[in-house]
Amino acid sequence: MKLSVGFATFSLWLAAAATATATLEASSLYDAASPKRYSVHAHSCDPAHPGKHCRPAHIAHQGGYSVKLAESPYQNSASNCPAPAPGGSGTINPPNAGRCHPVGATAEITSLSGPNGHIDWLNCGINGPGWSPAQVKIEDLVVVLLDSARHTTFSPCSDQIIATFKKYGQHLGIPPIILASFAMQESTCNPSAVGGAGEQGLMQITPEKCKGAPNGNCKDIDFNIRTGAEFFVATLASNGGDVFSTIGEYNGWKPGMTYGDATRAAHTCCRCQNNLDYLHQFLNGWMQGVNAYEMRLGKYHNVECP
To answer: How do beta strands 37-40 and 65-70 pair?
Structure first.
């Protein structure tokens, strides 16, 4: 992870904020007394094809966020899973899809596509003039509940870690699976992980963000997750709610980034590159309750280093 945006005093705006200048307050949009509300909009199914996953969608409204809620691939065993269709039930359908490439979302997860779109749409422009992500909001995303894959994909995360994802997800008004997905993508949920540039812990926090860590321990689970979560929310606000740009920025992506920019360090520091499969792995792997590394999601694989 390459953290490049400084923290600001902020209040959560996810339910209604429209500008990057929103003032973030300490209070959360999440209301613990407000129950989730689900509306079923799609079928239940379980794919017949190994290595692919089909999931139905719901709409979930919880506190300060609403997202399409897809069921985990580990739930439901109905055999009547229909063929995936771009833009069909259980797939992303953003109002501002951009013009670079068709969304290409599929109910099944494949090496190149999934419920949150095709890798060429997610990476729009990277192989040309530069990354130009579609303007997608957090409520447009298709996700699964963290608990649905707690003992499968997210099994490397301890009960304490899962509880902390939920704590800060609820406090900041974002789906806890977003935080869990960052931890799996960045460190495979290893609180002792240290990156090549000194990144620390579960969320791979860069050293300059470690000020205030208890006893100087940036790997402290609560501090580490809170710091990563607050960075994500602050960046989301500064990006005007653009969730693709915000997720990409966690790996050092910037609008305008080209393939050459991302791979410039390939021959000197392989792991210092930007992971060109990052968005697909994050959005169509971890956030669907699927292990992006075991499925080897993506097409670039540029950070699979010796």
So the answer is: unpaired
